[in-house]
Write a structure and sequence with these properties.
By secondary structure, the chain is mostly helical. It has helices spanning 2-25, 38-60, 64-70, 73-98, 102-122, 130-150, 155-174, 178-202, 213-220, 222-237, 242-248, 251-263, 270-311, 353-359. The longest helix has 42 residues, at 270-311.
Length: 378
């Protein structure tokens, strides 16, 4: 059993590294789609993502959720809102990368946990611990410093961070699996996206049919680029502790930041370094607080778990990621115990980790309590 658990943990960790690695390296992909503009790339991403996930759902024969969703107007309306918000997020990110703003885009993912916490306070009336308040205050100061560094507010970063936070807030009410959620959202996006591509073709601006087979194949692969990391993340979410996912999530913006500075050669004057340093300090505070809370929660809940298992012969250990495989809902990917001290809300645990996992709606990922950050990455 211990060997199986370790094997499951390794598999989950590798899948988590693969998911966040792909999200972190995606800035290398979008420039390959030029001369297509950001709007055409976005439209292709919507169309081909739907095609990819539709085939995947047909293979596994998972369509029952669609009928249920159509019979629930409120949930369907929330999916429409989620689709609109993620459209903004995807579009801004693609434009930012292809316009030489990779570093600023990475900042959006660094500050996303801080924005999520702020929204939890303002909208959901959550109570924060002192370290969380300090992190939010430092994050706000960082934005002011970066405004000086960029010579303007970092609107790309703020748009990405706030759109993610809003997207997650909506998605936690929808409660769909990752592939199912992507299918529902891209189904809503499909007709406007296809209509735009047809209009572009009629006006001679569509590059899909004019730049060769290789270019067309790259545009079609946007569906795979969108869905594959989600699949890997889903495999990770049911096998590793959410505190681990909370730490892994920073790989994506770190990779993006390094690509922006080292590969794309974007400028980093002292003011920007100072602003980023403040953001990183805020995240260190947030992460340290989350890990301390996680350990306290584990000590508090440990005896109760043992007693519960003794009273229920054959029960699965809710702290065992391997034993919790397939578990969904508010109890989370690790069973009945929320990892990383996610006691009152998704942002009260890992620095966006539990919340981020849940907001993506990946099968097996936990349902967030509040203030979520989505993982529908760029």
């Amino acid at each position: 059993m211990a060997g199986t658990s370790r094997s499951e943990g390794r598999t989950g960790l590798l899948n988590g590294l693969a998911a966040y690695g792909m999200w972190g390296l995606v800035p290398l992909f979008w420039p390959l789609l030029k001369p297509a503009g950001a709007t055409e790339i976005l439209a292709h991403r919507m169309v081909w993502s739907l095609a990819f996930v539709a085939v995947a759902l047909l293979v596994v024969r998972r369509w029952a959720w669609a009928g249920e969703l159509l019979r629930q107007p409120r949930r369907l309306g929330l999916v429409v809102i989620a689709a609109a918000v993620i459209t903004v997020n995807w579009g801004v990110y693609i434009w930012a990368v292809n316009s030489g703003h990779v570093v600023e885009a990475s900042l959006g993912y660094f500050i996303n946990p801080l924005v999520t916490i702020a929204m939890g306070v303002l909208i959901l009336k959550e109570r924060l611990r002192p370290a969380q308040w300090a992190a939010v205050g430092i994050g706000f100061s960082a934005v002011l410093v970066l405004t000086i560094g960029f010579g303007r507010p970092p609107w790309i970063s703020l748009t990405l961070a706030f759109s993610f936070a809003i997207y997650g807030l909506v998605k936690k009410k929808v409660n769909l699996g990752g592939v199912e959620s992507l299918a529902a959202e891209t189904a809503i996006q499909f007709l406007p996206a296809l209509g735009y591509l047809l209009w572009l073709s009629a006006h001679g601006g569509l590059t899909f049919a004019t730049e060769g087979v290789g270019h067309a194949a790259l545009l079609a692969s946007t569906g795979l680029v969108t869905a594959l990391p989600l699949v890997c993340f889903g495999a990770a979410a049911i096998r590793v502790p959410l505190s681990t996912l909370g730490l892994l999530q920073y790989l994506a913006p770190v990779f993006q930041f390094l690509l922006g500075v080292l590969y794309f050669g974007e400028a980093m004057p002292p003011e920007r370094w100072a602003g980023f340093a403040l953001v990183w300090l805020a995240l260190v505070l947030l992460t340290g607080d989350a890990l301390r809370t996680s350990r306290r929660a584990a000590r508090t809940l440990g005896p109760a778990i043992t007693e519960s298992r003794a009273a229920t012969p054959g029960a699965t250990d809710p702290t065992d990621p391997a034993g919790a495989t397939g578990t969904t809902g508010a109890t989370g990917a690790t069973g009945g115990v929320r990892e990383a001290g996610s006691v009152a809300s998704g942002v009260s645990g890992t620095p966006g980790g539990a919340a981020v996992a849940a907001a993506s709606g990946v099968p097996g990922a936990p349902a967030p309590e509040a203030g979520v950050s989505p993982l529908a990455k760029p």
